[in-house]
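Re: that chain you flagged

S.,

Sorry for the slow reply, it's been a week of failed gels. I finally had a moment to sit down with the sequence you sent. For the record, here it is as I used it:
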Amino acid sequence: MRIVQFVQQYGVRAVGVVDGDEVINITATYPQYETTLVLALDAIKRQLGLEQMLNELLPQCDSRVSYDALWNGEVDSDLHLLPPLDHRDDSRTYITGTGLTHTGSMQSRDQMHSDDDAVKETAEQPQTDSARMFQMGLDGGKPQVGMRGTAPEWFYKGNGICLRGHRSHLDLPAFALDGGEEPEFVGCYVIGPEGVPYRVGFALGNEWSDHATEKINYLYLAPSKIRTCSVGPELVVGGEFEDLDVRVTVTRDGQQIYDSGDLKSGQQFMCHSLANCEDHHFKYPLHRQPGDVHLHFFGTSKLSFGTRDWKYQAGDLIEVSAAGFSRSLINQVTDACAEAADPVRVKTL
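Prediction finished late last night. Pasting the structure tokens below so you have them in one place:
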């Protein structure tokens, strides 16, 4: 079952379930359910699985919207898609991620930060921090049930201010050295009233970052991540996370300039299990506050940064697609934060 959130005429929000080329408008029949979050919290309250609750609601819903119209709708038009899960209070959406989870990600990061003159690593003693971190995941990232495994790399991306939906712009700040696509699967979570995390499902995501800044020094990883990112267009409720393919293309002036090909993801192709990644994210009390939303990126196996001879520029179109998701996630790059091209001056009160 696939859920979307959208804006209809006069800026009214709605949540719907994808049914082929149409979206069943849940909110039209049940106006109390205007967001995925409200739906999820009510399912928790009623002690029902979200899919079970939706199956109870859908027979009474007779209002439908064209999925094509939604998917093609531009932001700020009368009919367009939103991220499939968010919080009306931006400060209560946590956007985070786990890196160095895939073999390819380790190779990309290792290449980015290793010294060309350094001695080549051996299987017994990886030379870089990235390689050592990845090896720690191989050794202890998939613990037995009931055991706590090795902690993966973790990063903070931002809050709801940084979140973009399908066809929204991805910002290229004036202070950035470059942009960087990261096609990933995103775990979508809500925190129940008792502080228990619930996984609603998975969505496609583009964890837009600045790899040129990160390359200067791996300690710049944190600021390189504070960028906008996109999630959508749909959320697959439940969903498997074992063997998945994802692909990203970049188009400039109507010409394709990058195609990643099919990239493997899911637990079979990661050094950490899903449960281990979730444990190490939600073990912190800060991440278990009732009513909060968490969107967690699970990493990618390939970046264009290490192989391309071009930089992102305004107008570039990035498309992320995957089997199991009926529509792709498309975003356009735009110049942003012109006010931060010069030093930001703080005033004294």
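What I noticed first: The domain at 90-340 is CATH 3.90.850.10 (Fumarylacetoacetate hydrolase; domain 2).

Talk soon,
D.
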